[in-house]
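Deliverable D2.4 — example input (structure tokens):
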């Protein structure tokens, strides 16, 4: 369904729909390839909101394509193309999919989120206040909200099919994926974050934290998958305006979460709609993040 320039869901008659996630619709191309369509749905507190964010799906798709290409020498990934003209005939003429579709290699997904934190915020900040540690990492005393950590931390989480993801320590992470795979995922995640953070800072953005997902293809290769370093999967702050000791203005969906926190809502479905000014400001933040990081204007058609 289209709402103006926004898409709440896709419907491709010639392809088998495998899954509708909170944001992406996943279709089967064949035994080795999938099509990911990023809609303009937005979720917060594990609830999909009724309000769409114009251009959001295109930002997620195109910023992920940028990072997949830029970081390919750090980790092999599932990305094939985001260019509709290079896709199978059954979909290349569906104009509404332009800029928001990714053709990718099919993998068996590891049931974990590979989270890397460079700054103390979110659930990490809450845990630090209670225990002085984050996911088993003991931290120095006296750190403030949004302080940069002495070094980036690998803080994995379970990948919940429904409900909240749960932060876990490295021992539990190893128990889920095995010691060898755990070591490789940690190594790749930290290096991806390091390389991306250095680049983003040069473009005026602090990547405070992010999450990566990985899967194994039919050849047994571990691939970086899903979305990468987007405003949905990361916290993006302004280098110029960074000021620790308080919450930071952001280029990501934290802006939406903070609005929802002001409401009398128990964070269970149905989620409340966003007012037009919050909707518009969210689109503005997402598109600005894309422009700052890539140096390009978002392709909207």
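Example output (designed residues):
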């Amino acid at each position: 369904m289209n709402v103006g320039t926004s898409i709440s869901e896709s419907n491709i008659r010639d392809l088998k729909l495998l899954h509708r996630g909170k944001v992406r619709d996943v279709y089967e191309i064949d035994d080795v390839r999938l099509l990911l369509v990023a809609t303009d749905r937005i979720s917060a507190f594990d609830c999909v909101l009724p309000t769409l964010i114009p251009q959001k799906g295109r930002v997620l798709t195109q910023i992920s394509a940028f990072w997949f290409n830029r970081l390919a020498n750090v980790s092999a990934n599932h990305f094939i193309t985001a260019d509709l003209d290079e896709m199978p005939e059954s979909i290349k003429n569906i104009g509404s999919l332009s800029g928001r579709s990714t053709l990718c290699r099919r993998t068996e997904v590891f049931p974990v989120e590979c989270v890397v934190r460079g700054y103390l915020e979110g659930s990490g900040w809450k845990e630090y206040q209670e225990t002085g540690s984050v996911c088993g990492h003991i931290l120095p005393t006296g750190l403030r909200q949004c302080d940069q950590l002495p070094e980036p931390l690998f803080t994995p989480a379970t990948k919940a099919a429904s409900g909240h993801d749960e932060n876990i320590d490295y021992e539990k992470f190893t128990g889920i994926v095995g010691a060898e795979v755990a070591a490789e995922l940690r190594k790749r995640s930290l290096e991806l974050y390091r390389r991306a953070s250095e680049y983003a800072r040069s473009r005026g953005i602090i990547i405070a934290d992010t999450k990566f997902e990985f899967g194994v293809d039919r050849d047994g290769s571990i691939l970086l998958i899903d979305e990468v370093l987007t405003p949905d999967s990361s916290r993006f702050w302004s280098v110029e305006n960074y000021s620790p000791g308080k919450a930071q203005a952001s280029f990501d969906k934290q802006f939406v979460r903070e609005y929802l926190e002001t409401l009398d809502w128990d964070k269970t479905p149905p989620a409340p709609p966003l007012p037009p000014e919050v909707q518009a400001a969210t689109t503005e933040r997402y598109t600005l993040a894309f422009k700052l990081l890539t140096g390009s204007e978002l392709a909207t058609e």
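The first strand starts at residue 2 and ends at 3.
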